[in-house]
Design goal:
The chain is an all-alpha fold. About 65% of the residues lie in helices and about 0% in strands.
Length: about 110
């Protein structure tokens, strides 16, 4: 029988985001959390923000700070992203896909 740690490590999806993917996520999360972007772009994510609890928005803002900190975190990989951040990121990407705002399906496939 496998050790639980080995099982978790084997089941965990390993990925590293390219610079372009990272920049796309910086823009997406920044606009969705009102950290950057034009008012018209921010308004497109109003329904998403209403659907999220305050702590979820705060988690996304913290994730935006992590993505935007290229000095401390030169590469974004699965080890840097916590499960709650990953869940919210998938939720946000799916929202953007459903509303036909931006197509980040390649990133979604990579992180799921």
């Amino acid at each position: 029988m496998k050790d639980i740690n080995k099982y978790i490590i084997e089941k965990q999806k390993n990925f590293v985001l390219s610079d372009d993917e990272r920049n796309s996520l910086i823009e997406l999360v920044g606009i969705a959390t009102e950290q950057c972007g034009e008012d018209s772009d921010i308004k497109e994510y109003e329904e998403f923000r209403k659907d999220c609890q305050e702590n979820e928005i705060n988690t996304l803002i913290d994730f935006y700070d992590l993505l935007n900190d290229k000095h401390t975190y030169p590469k974004i990989n699965n080890r840097l992203i916590q499960n709650d951040e990953l869940y919210l990121l998938v939720k946000l990407i799916n929202y953007a896909l459903d509303k036909d705002i931006i197509d980040l399906s390649e990133i979604l496939e990579k992180i799921q």
